[in-house]
Each structure stands twice: as structure tokens, then as C-alpha cells.
Recover the amino acids of this structure.
């Protein structure tokens, strides 16, 4: 299924109840457009179509898209390492916010991970994304101050 992103009239946004379904690689173009149009979301080489296909294949049924009137209005990607769940790229277009869509996406991800025996979840928020940090705090997520995250890339792969 190919999802098209278009701008509905403002009055239409309020009246559309979104549906949420698992993300497939066929959603890649629409989700990438959502990500590029959302401040605070960073796209890297690891977000390529090929890398996303591998991620979805490795974590089937754990990433979701929200649709309103057939229009992609939100998404979340999630996966696990067998012990911990990881949530990435939660976003809802501004005109669809404050309708509970993000919370529904998070709940679908967590419930799906819990069904696999995963009980602890992590996510990353860019330090500059204060809106996202506030959102996660309101949901009860806690900022870890006891660990630092270190990343490694080989020279030439700084955007990996």
C-alpha cells in the first residue's frame, strides 16, 4: 500500500479518527516525507530504504503508521535486542497533534514488545528537542543520568 501525504483542510483534520497499522517498507517514502517535514527528527544514512527494510524485517510488526483519511500523519519505529525495547522516530504532523495519536503509537509499540517478553524500553531524544523531552516526561519516562551513551563509526561513515 502506498500512502500519499497531502494537506487536508484544517476542519477535516479534527473530524478524522486515525487508524494505526504496522509499518511496511511500502510506507518508506511517506514516512521519510513525514520525518523530513518534522523539526527535531534527524535522518541519517541508517534511515535509508535498505536499512529500514532490514530493521522492519528484523523487528516485524513492531513499527507503526497512523493514517487519517488514507494520509500518513504519524509513525513510530520500534525494535528490540532480545532484552530491551527501543523506540525511535515517534512523530505526528503538527495539524494532527493533541488528539492522542502519539500516545496510541507508543502504546502499540510497547504492547507489541511486551508480547515478546520485553519489559524495559529506551529511546533517544536530541538534546535540542525540548518538546520531545517534555512529551516523554509527561508520559512518565525518566531521563537517565547514570549512564552516558557512546557511539562509534568508522572514518568516512560519520552520518551512519
Amino acid at each position: 500500500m502506498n500512502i500519499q501525504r497531502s494537506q487536508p483542510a484544517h476542519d477535516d483534520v479534527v473530524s478524522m479518527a486515525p487508524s494505526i497499522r504496522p509499518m511496511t517498507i511500502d510506507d518508506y517514502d511517506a514516512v521519510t516525507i513525514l520525518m523530513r517535514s518534522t523539526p527535531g527528527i534527524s535522518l541519517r544514512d541508517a534511515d535509508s530504504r535498505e536499512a529500514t527494510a532490514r530493521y522492519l524485517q528484523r523487528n516485524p510488526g513492531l513499527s507503526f503508521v497512523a493514517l487519517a483519511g488514507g494520509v500518513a500523519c504519524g509513525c513510530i519505529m520500534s525494535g528490540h535486542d532480545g532484552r530491551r525495547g527501543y523506540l525511535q522516530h515517534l512523530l505526528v504532523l503538527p495539524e494532527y497533534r493533541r488528539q492522542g495519536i502519539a500516545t496510541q503509537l507508543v502504546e502499540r509499540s510497547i504492547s507489541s514488545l511486551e508480547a515478546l517478553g520485553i519489559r524495559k524500553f529506551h529511546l533517544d531524544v536530541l538534546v535540542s528537542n525540548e518538546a520531545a523531552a517534555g512529551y516523554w516526561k509527561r508520559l512518565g519516562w525518566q531521563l537517565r543520568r547514570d549512564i552516558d551513551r557512546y557511539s562509534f563509526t568508522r572514518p568516512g561513515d560519520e552520518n551512519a
Summary: The first strand starts at residue 19 and ends at 22. Helices lie at 10-15, 28-36, 49-58, 101-114, 130-138.
